[in-house]
Write a structure and sequence with these properties.
This protein is mainly alpha-helical. The chain has helices at about 5-25, 30-40, 45-60, 65-80, 80-95, 100-110, 115-155, and strands at about 155-160, 165-170. The chain has seven helices and two strands. The longest helix has about 40 residues, at about 115-155.
Length: about 170
């Protein structure tokens, strides 16, 4: 990788990091825009957008949690499903709860109608199901680690002078 390519990669990573900070991840659309910008010498546009986004989100009385909830509600009203999902996850990342998201969806019912409310509830259901699946996977993984650790605690293998001795710790 040339010095110029390396510098561009570092600059693109800085843009990604700003998204990770506010949303917890880099949305696919941002990755696509960065790819296009890098391929066509337009990274400075993405950097300018990220800079403006940073100023608006960090130099604002609303704070990150409320900002993400506002984004979620606006996107529900516009009927933008995928960006609404991104900002719902961003709101959770910023400290909002499921009750906050439900409140936004209910408000969208009054301001934008049943389609916005339905989209909001659909999004929340998807997030809670994904969260439950992630928790179950994490619990299964933690259980496997505990089982491995338990076996290791019961039997310690000592290698000494080319012989293996099995010592029971907890018979």
């Amino acid at each position: 990788m040339s010095g110029t390519d390396e510098a561009l990669a570092l600059r693109a990573e800085a843009v990604r990091e700003r998204h990770r900070t506010t949303l917890g991840s880099v949305p696919a659309g941002v990755e696509a825009r960065l790819g296009l910008a890098l391929a066509h010498g337009r990274l400075h546009t993405e950097e300018a957008l990220a800079g403006l986004r940073h100023v608006v989100l960090t130099d604002n009385a609303l704070g990150g949690r409320v900002q993400q909830l506002v984004h979620f509600g606006q996107l529900l009203a516009l009927g933008r499903a995928e960006p609404a999902r991104i900002h719902a996850r961003g709101a959770l990342h910023a400290g909002a709860g499921i009750a906050d998201l439900i409140g936004v969806a209910e408000t969208a019912l009054l301001t934008a109608g049943v389609p916005a409310y339905a989209l909001g509830i659909e999004t929340i259901v998807e997030l809670t199901e994904a969260g439950a699946e992630a928790e179950a996977e994490a619990e299964a993984e933690a259980g496997a680690v505990r089982a491995d650790r338990s076996r290791a605690e019961r039997s310690l293998i000592i290698h000494c002078n080319e012989r293996t001795v099995d010592v029971a710790l907890n018979p």
